[in-house]
Amino acid sequence: PSVINAVESATCAGSSVGDECAVLCLDNHEWPRDQVVVCVAGGNWSIKTECVAIGDQIVVGVAGTLYMVMTENGDFSLAWALAFVQYFQDAAATLLGVASGYVRVQIFSLGRRARTRFLQESAFEVAVTLFGGEQDASAVELQMTCGFYDCVNGSGSVGLNDGTNWFTDAIVSECIADGQAVPSGLSTAQARFAGLTSVEDFTYAVPESSERSS
């Protein structure tokens, strides 16, 4: 299972439906006591919380996750993305019109993931999670679709492998604002749509300094 702010682990591979998986949180994070990660049908995992930062306010709401695939090009690589994941998070927050404390970004090598329809040695997956507070799941999904893609006909108008430059343009802007050199290949990269999911009653942490943008 892939849990936000937790150590990636393969120790629960091969679990049966109903089995629970222990989660090891990153430093300065903790696991909410009343939550478990459970194996469900189809070899998937029911995950309704992240590892929360110690001292942050805990909130329960909707979590929408947008999955995108990006291809390495020039100096724009998986290694660069992992080193500068904060730029991805800040760029996503800008597109979604929220404070960055309401957004999480996870980056994975596709070679280790199950999304085989995109399996390329030079491709990696970016998962952007938006916490929607009191919004319903459909509203969060629409907000994410419209933030990253053209949604004239609603969230259902975005199809598998559709590309967008909005995300990469926003990442470029974050690099420039921080005085960081923009890697060659990033400006022409696209984020291709791979999927969109949402989970209700999801437990997450929001820093006290975060305020949702209007």
CATH fold-level topology of the largest domain: Alpha-Beta Plaits
Number of domains: 2
Unreliable runs = 112-119
Radius of gyration: 17 Å
Query: What is the N-to-C order of secondary-structure elements (H for helix, E for strand)?
Result: EEEEEEHHEEHEHE
Number of strands: 10
CATH class bucket of the largest domain: Alpha Beta
Helix content: 10-25%
Mean pLDDT: 86
Short description:
With 214 residues, the protein is of the alpha+beta class. It contains four helices and ten strands, in the order E-E-E-E-E-E-H-H-E-E-H-E-H-E.
Note the main attributes of this structure:
10 strands, 4 helices, Complement Module, domain 1, alpha+beta, Alpha-Beta Plaits, 214 residues, 3-stranded antiparallel beta sheet
Characterize the structure shown.
The chain is an alpha+beta fold and 214 residues long. The protein folds into two domains: 1-55, Complement Module, domain 1, CATH 2.10.70; 57-205, TT1725-like (Alpha-Beta Plaits, 2-Layer Sandwich), CATH 3.30.70. 20% of the residues lie in helices and 29% in strands. It is built from four helices and ten strands. It has helices spanning 78-83, 85-96, 137-148, 166-177; strands spanning 20-21, 29-30, 37-40, 44-46, 52-53, 57-71, 103-109, 123-131, 163-164, 191-206. Helix 2 (85-96) crosses helix 4 (166-177).
